[in-house]
Design goal:
homodimer; Dna Ligase, domain 1; 2 domains; three-stranded mixed beta sheet; 23% strand; DNA-binding
Chain lengths: 136, 136
DNA sequence: TTCCTTGCAAATCGTTTGCATAATG
DNA sequence: CATTATGCAAACGATTTGCAAGGAA
């Protein structure tokens, strides 16, 4: 039950803190491996899960079948682009209101909320505009 | 590309319409099989995916690694109980406001929103109260 | 007849786990 | 020393897919 320090976990956490693009476990693995060549994917998964359970990071399930991880544990929404798959933070003021509203309407205890928005990011919108023009 | 009628798809859709508990593909399979013994899991998955793509049903990813399906395509949130895993509808008035707010703040196109709340349902709350009393 | 759909089984793939060894406290 | 963490590889499990046969338009 007690958690002991491990250099691997530290490196994983540091890497996650350095990124704002919500990398997958495999991306974490590929990057951490450059600094720590012997690390295994299993260790990466184990530590990501451990950190998530301790609330030090957040696990995102955006719907493409691959889990992503976010070192920012503050309450915020995410936008997922259906074009390129990028995931970006989307802080909204009304999250507190929504949570309060949900608590008022639901008979039970609500601890946590997770909200994802889907659509096309600016880059993908521009690309699709280019394509329409070209085809016209 | 053209969709042809199939009895299997009809049965799957009918079953989904009859349930409000957001069943998984396997639950759909087990139930549909009683009426249609030769149907295969692959067919169930194929049709659930097809119906989802056509917007006739909704695919939910509540975070336990198993997809769930909802014949109610109206805009509403879901509550997932961390105790028993049950999934219930949670309609909120403020969803429109939230979507509007997100669209205002985000540079890109937002098509769709998905919101999940997590906590303990009434039954699980009662059970945990029972356990505390018993242990006291 | 043409194209879509099915049943079956095998393949996929992200994630988890068992085990012997290494590191931590 | 007791306990937790690691690396490796095998296991897992939900979902997808290839293919030959069946059904709809």
């Amino acid at each position: 039950m007690a958690v002991k320090y491990s250099r691997q976990r530290q490196v994983i956490y540091n890497f996650l803190m350095s990124r704002k693009d919500h990398p997958t476990a495999d991306v974490v693995y590929q990057n951490v491996r450059q600094e720590y060549p012997n690390i295994s994917l299993g260790t990466v998964y184990r530590n990501l899960t451990l950190l998530t359970n301790r609330g030090e990071i957040q696990r995102l399930q955006v719907g493409d079948g691959v889990d992503r991880f976010d070192a920012d544990t503050s309450r915020h929404c995410h936008f997922i682009c259906s074009g390129c798959g990028c995931v970006t933070d989307l802080p909204l003021d009304c999250m507190e209101d929504m949570l309060a509203d949900a608590r008022k309407k639901f008979d039970g205890r609500i601890d946590r909320q997770s909200t994802y928005f889907y659509g096309l990011c600016r880059d993908c919108l521009n690309h699709s505009a280019d394509i329409s023009e070209r085809d016209a």
